[in-house]
Amino acid sequence: MPAPILPLIDAAAHWPERGTLVGLDLGTKTIGVAVSDPDRRLATGVETIQRKAFKADAARLLTIAGERKAVGFVLGLPINMDGSEGPRAQSTRAFARNLAGLTDLPIALWDERLSTAAVERELIGMDVRRARRAEVIDEHAAIFILQGALDRLANLRAAGGKS
């Protein structure tokens, strides 16, 4: 049975209390990958995958998930500023559907509006040169996406599960 693909809050109900999450920033040429600690407090970058074919990309992601004993995925969903979904969001949903067919780990979709822009500003502020920024932007965007999701989940726990 394919993995469920749900908004973050709904997906969290399918994950055990503890366990690593894998965060993904899907680009057209690369996939940024980050992971959380088992207590889901901190996101850390893992790598940037150069995209090839879906099967090869998915195999690498599933290997990372297995090595880290992950309990779920968090995919950044690139929603437009007006709340609509364009071709990139549709592509992300298609990737999630295809990945869901290969795993039983629940997949959460998390609004990633402005994540890449925020990371770019941060890297510029740190005086990271343009070529280096291009190498690390997707991994850092994955960290930003996953950390945002972790913070949202922590805020929900602190509020007693109310959204």
Could you name the ranges where pLDDT drops below 50 across 5 or more consecutive residues? none
Strand composition percent:
15-25%
**What can be said about the biggest beta sheet?**
6 strands, mixed
Query: Total helix count?
Result: 5
How would you sum up the global shape? Answer: globular
Distance between the termini: 29 Å
Structural class: alpha/beta
User: Helix proportion of residues, in percent?
Assistant: 40-55%
Count of beta strands: 6
Q: Kindly provide the radius of gyration, computed on alpha-carbon positions and rounded to a whole number of angstroms.
A: 15 Å
The average pLDDT is: 88
Order of strands across the main sheet: 1-6-5-2-3-4
Run of helices and strands: EHEEEHEHEHH
